[in-house]
Amino acid sequence: MQSYLTSGFLLLSLLLQIGTQCDAAAFAPGDNLVETLQGVEMVDSDLSTRRNMMGTLSVVIIRALGLNGDGLMQTNAVARMWYSSFYYQTNEIKSDNPTWNAVYNLGVVETHLPLKVEVWDKDVGKDDLLISCTKYLTQGMHTFTCSGNGQVEVKYSLVCEPGLTGNQCQVGK
Ligand SMILES: [Ca+2]
Ligand SMILES: [Ca+2]
């Protein structure tokens, strides 16, 4: 009798605990324990889906070549990059062939988003957009070049979070 009461009490406190963690309205008085546990499982799989497609991203804006922002004068070259809510801008180099080697460590990010890179010539008044491109990332170390008015070289490293693999870190091991 005592153990029956104890297990009944444990069941009740488990239900109360789950009820406070989830939407209490989802648990009607008639619900049994099996339905309740299925509810918990659904919450868990939502969480693991959210942990999917994550990796550590570093981007290096290496250099640009053959820019022509100011005719006979050297370009006032600046590169900009965007990824998710991140935005970075290099320092300005007065050259048609600037080398920045600017390293940006973004930390753990979602992997399915496009990386956008632009190169600009700074002017008094309106700046000139020389190169613009977007690139979807894959895991590993990669170097790519974007062309426009000249070229820009970009390198990045994407390391999947533990337990994830595939091009965009989407598949669990
Ligand atoms: Ca210009
Ligand atoms: Ca300029």
TrEMBL record:
SMART domains, per database record: C2
The signal sequence is 1-24
Domain (C2) ranges: 41-156
Indicate yes or no for the key word Signal.
yes
Gene3D superfamilies given in the database record: C2 domain
**Record-linked SUPFAM superfamilies:** C2 domain (Calcium/lipid-binding domain, CaLB)
Keyword vocabulary terms for this entry: Signal
Question: Keyword Signal: yes or no?
Answer: yes
Q: Which InterPro entries match?
A: C2_dom, C2_domain_sf, Perforin-1_pore-forming
- What sections of the protein cross the membrane? none
Q: What is the name of this protein? A: C2 domain-containing protein
Per the UniProt entry, what species is this protein from, by scientific name?
A: Xenotaenia resolanae
